[in-house]
Design a protein that fits this description.
The chain is built from eight helices and 17 strands. By secondary structure, it is of the alpha+beta class. β9 and β10 form a beta hairpin.
Length: 342
Amino acid sequence: YFIQSNLSRGPVVMIRWMVLLLGLFGMLNEFVYANEYEISYNIDNPEQNYPSAGPIIELMDVTKEAAPNQIRLSYTEDPTEMSITWTTNAVSPTEQVKYGLLEGDMGYVAFSTSHQFDWSYQEDSSDFYYTSGFIHEALMVNLEPGKKHFYQIESNGQTSPVMSFIAAPAPGEETPVSFLHVADQGIYSTSVMVVKDMMDRLATKDFHAILHCGDISYADKYDGQRPPPSGMAEQSMWDTWGQMVQPLAAKVPYMVTPGNHEVVGYESGWENGTIYHKRFIMPGNERFYSFTLGMVYVISVSTDDDVDAGTAQGDWLEQTLADIDRDTFPWVVVFQHRPIYN
């Protein structure tokens, strides 16, 4: 009734009301979470009135994990494809993903490429030295849009459980599309609460994607134990985050866009985007990109890269928006880390 009555007053009025409602629902949601989980606030200093994230959860030691872990799906620009990444502590001659429409007949095979990287607190020192696990990347092709597919990873002599995902709906297909949306997550006790809530939602409804709008693992904020001036990021926080979200990301494509804690100097623990590109498989150049889900055209914008006219991202975004066929994609969703209005 509300929608019908306000549509008669014109689309601009309708959009304003819907934005207002979304804002009110957001505030209500925040209030409910604050009470349900007893998130504390600093009432003595209103200028620092931020919720307490709680302690960092126990860090994962990737060198001890032989079985496929940190499993994560992601879309490409082609709705008949699905990227997948996982990590193990070693490699074997057979590194692959079997997949298909039937759990008992996974006749397709996608072979993976694997890489490692080193990370050190100081270039001339082995303090806080870290070598990643073997990060595997594979591409599943010839998927049937909108259909459920089963898959199983064979890696490092280990076999994962059989898991499943739903491929992207075909471009322009008139089907409802739902997202889970999160940002500024980290690996704190409250982060686990958020993941648990998302898992509960997944248990009752199908979602097409998870949109993570930057500030992902907060690897630069390891209990403030990084002495100045370096403040190098703690890479095992990335492993821990990857395993924390696996129950979500192994089922629903997990699409990310970078925040300042991934790409900006000291705020990223001097990662400067390098680790973001080593750990994630996103379309395009992985920072700014697009993909489609039925009638929805989704765009990722990197708010810590220039977006003005004449810049790589600015020109790309202007051309991308101009090229969208609005008959096929009446809905355009843009997600980014920093808010447009602040």
